[in-house]
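Example record

One chain of 586 residues, shown exactly as stored in the release files.
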Amino acid sequence: MWRRLRSALRSLRGSLAAPPHGGGGRPPAAMERAVVRCVPSEPKLSLRFVLPDGSARHMQRDQAEPLGRALARIATNAAKGQGKAGKKSKKARAEGGAEGEAAVPAVRLFSRDGAAVAEEVPNAAAWQDGAVLHIGDARYRVERNPPALTELRLPRSLLAGFPVCPKVSAEFAEPQHCLFRWFREQRPAGGGDAAGEAWVETAAAERVFTPSNALVGLRLKLRCTPGDGEQRYGPALEVESSGPVEAGPGACTFDARHLYTKKVCGHGSVRAVSYNILADTYAQTEFSRTVLYPYCAPYALEIDYRQNLLKKELTGYSADLICLQEVDKSVFVDSLAPALDAFGLEGLFRIKEKQHEGLATFYRRDKFSLLSQHDIAFSEALVSEPLHKELCEQLAKYPLVQEKVLQRSSVLQVLVLQSTTDSSRKLCVANTHLYWHPKGGNIRLIQIAVAMSHIKHVACDLYPRIPVIFCGDFNSTPSSGAYSFISSGGIAEDHEDWVSNGEEERCSMTLSHPFKLQSACGEPAYTNYVGGFHGCLDYIFIDRNALEVEQVIPLPSHEEITTHQALPSVSHPSDHIALICDLKWK
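Predicted structure tokens for this chain:
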């Protein structure tokens, strides 16, 4: 075979001017692939193909390099491959003479329409999808940036009745264009406990799969084929679950709430959710297990278990905006972002300074587009931004309080969103988690002052007169100074919260902001319910000049909350309760 190939290659020497087979027009059906990865932000492109001798070649070339140099390198590589494959015994070389030497094959690139690509064209422009590479007699169809999966992962914990949302990471592909096929293990014929090796395909062909009770005890397998909007598909990947589907917990605290949120609101309305989801970094401490939540079954505090509940709860709200607090970075990346993305929500994350958790805000893609993002860390903004110069100077008079404020890692997440159906409708969506200490009322007042000044800059200066939705865990009851300041627009210098940690840390100043804000969900009896405390700490504040409340989704009943004594529990994933309301423009 190689003798015939060498003979054919010799006949092609000097024939570079006239491409065989019509100049590379319509390629043969059995053409090999040459895969090109070319990303504008990277200086090099990569080229992968397999030579006729079966050896794989993976080359890196500068994108700005002339095509001719890349083709010369391919020719050299191909000749080396031939040289290795064509090695003879001493006797054969003696008999064949120079015939044993490897010949450099003709290498050319032709565009989809059959025209030869000039050798001075830069690599980035030369290697187009559908082009044909000739290496001697061999033909390769160029696939530029074909869809490819970089990660496919199933959650570690699978519960019957709860959605399984795989993490799908891809290059040059989009999850909505990928093909999904779900399989379950074959149950043993004898009805025993040991599962068989065979897999049976389920009827599900969607990205998200909810296993039924019939699948308890069986593992799942997912096969995903990456695709893009042009109906190009790459090689499929398969992943098997690490464990079997387990029985669910039965009725959950959010089941009745889902009856109100089965459908997404119309385009004239916005469903907003605010929820402190309890970071794993806090739930798994010895203090949490033995002091804060001793009533909660240890397995129900595990993040793998709680994520099942969280994903089912959040996806069942059919929300347009979701503001979350205490979000572990790994939970956002590996669990929440992939899960909510499958339900049409785009997520943005802001980590706290020197912490493993932070804030996450999600918005529905077919309702909103992101215009800009304006996140800040309170302590950093206070000392570095001219916007807060006056407040910073006032605070400097109280060094003990100033030190505490600057030590806090609290952040503010601010997005400006625009309606996809009415460009005149924009929203400033803010999300925060204020300092937690019961005696930190003065610290929270300073943090709110920074937040309101920053929101004013965005919603009045950068985008004049756009409505504000301000969500978060404010760690403030309705009787607190922070709540009064937000809802009334001002705080007096003699408010009791200025001396919340004693006279030694008194910090008196008069503060104001220009917004007319109201708590959309009112003042519930509690949004946080643990063994030693319950109270209302979470709010969705809205601009009452521009927005009004259509409905507030009722909170779970007291009986549901206390079924397992307090929160979190086997039927509720956090120590807080989600706030949900439907809003509309006035």
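Notes: The mean pLDDT is 91.
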